[in-house]
């Protein structure tokens, strides 16, 4: 089992119980604390609750679990479909969106505790291969990626570019970023904060190529509230969109960066090239890891989501090293969402 560390806005007694009895209390955890539960294999971060994976079982835990105050978490099972296994889950503001092992999408309303199966309208584009959903992403809309590389704005198909196969998708609040099998990046949605990367603030109602990084092979994408971060196969990190809290790590730019811009990792001790291997965006912060296992972060630390004491750093407008001790265990993975970050060691 991985050892899990958490920092940021606390949404569950499972993470930290101090003052949690007061529903009006906003509990910020501004250092990474380890979760003392050995059977947790993964966590999905929400605004006021979290989802907990225990192998293939999914539990919900947080302020919304009000009718079972004696329990830290509640097992999620679809009535009359209890044999279905869950492949992926997203902790949304009102619903838990789940992809099941039969490639169907279900939504669980966290307030009235009801389940709804999402109807997906997939028109046949191949007479040879059946099309089905392999991944879901969510901002203020729900987007699905199919095995044939097409995008669905649930429940209908998006006007997908011809001869382009998408292999990954991520959602901000009002925009979607897409990665193709050739390493190109497309975006669609609202562009009012430069988050589409097309050099303007215009909206785009269908996926459009981000021309500023054509010629590069992008290997990973991530989306925050109104910003994005991508990594090239050379280990370079590019960011763009809204920079109001320094989440782009571009300290010389005030608010908006409308085209992908390479990040310069400043180090006062020595000049060094950093190869970034993964990046994750929260609402207004960004964290990445290098091939040497070093974590760097920029943006808002309002709730301690950078794992740093808020009295020392409330906002960082450039990427700074997050020198955190994990008992000398290597970082296996990490994830950021909303106002929190989880780190998995082992």
From TrEMBL:
- UniProt source species: Ceratosolen solmsi marchali
Name under which the protein is recorded: X-linked retinitis pigmentosa GTPase regulator
Q: Where are the RCC repeats?
A: 183-234, 235-292
Superkingdom of the organism of origin: Eukaryota
């Amino acid at each position: 089992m991985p050892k899990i560390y958490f920092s940021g806005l606390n949404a569950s007694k499972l993470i930290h119980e101090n003052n949690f009895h007061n529903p009006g209390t906003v509990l910020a955890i501004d250092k990474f604390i380890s979760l003392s539960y050995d059977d947790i294999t993964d966590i999905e971060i929400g605004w006021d609750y979290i989802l907990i994976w225990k192998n293939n079982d999914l539990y919900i835990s947080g302020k919304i679990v009000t009718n079972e105050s004696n329990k830290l978490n509640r097992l999620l099972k679809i009535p009359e479909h209890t044999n279905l296994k869950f492949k992926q889950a997203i902790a949304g503001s009102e619903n838990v969106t789940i992809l099941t092992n039969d490639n169907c999408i279900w939504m669980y309303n966290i307030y009235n505790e009801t389940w709804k199966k999402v109807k997906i309208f997939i028109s046949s584009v191949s007479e040879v291969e059946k099309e089905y959903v392999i991944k879901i992403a969510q901002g203020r809309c729900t987007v699905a990626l199919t095995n044939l590389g097409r995008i669905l704005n649930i429940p209908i198909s998006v006007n997908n570019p011809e001869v382009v196969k998408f292999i990954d998708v991520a959602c901000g609040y009002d925009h979607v970023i897409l990665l193709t099998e050739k390493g190109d990046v497309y975006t669609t949605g609202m562009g009012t904060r430069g988050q589409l990367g097309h050099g303007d603030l215009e909206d785009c109602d269908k996926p459009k190529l981000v021309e500023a990084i054509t010629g590069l092979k992008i290997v990973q994408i991530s989306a925050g509230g109104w910003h994005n971060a991508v990594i090239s196969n050379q280990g370079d990190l590019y960011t763009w969109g809204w920079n109001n809290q320094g989440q782009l790590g571009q300290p010389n730019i005030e608010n908006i960066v409308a085209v992908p811009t390479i990040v310069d990792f400043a180090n006062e001790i020595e000049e060094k090239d950093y190869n970034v291997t993964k990046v994750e965006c929260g609402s207004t912060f960004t964290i990445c890891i290098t091939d040497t296992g070093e974590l760097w972060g920029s943006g808002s630390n309002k709730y301690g989501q950078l794992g740093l004491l808020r009295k020392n750093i409330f906002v960082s407008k450039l990427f700074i090293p997050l020198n955190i001790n994990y008992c000398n265990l290597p970082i296996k993975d990490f994830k950021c969402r909303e106002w929190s970050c989880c780190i998995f060691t082992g």
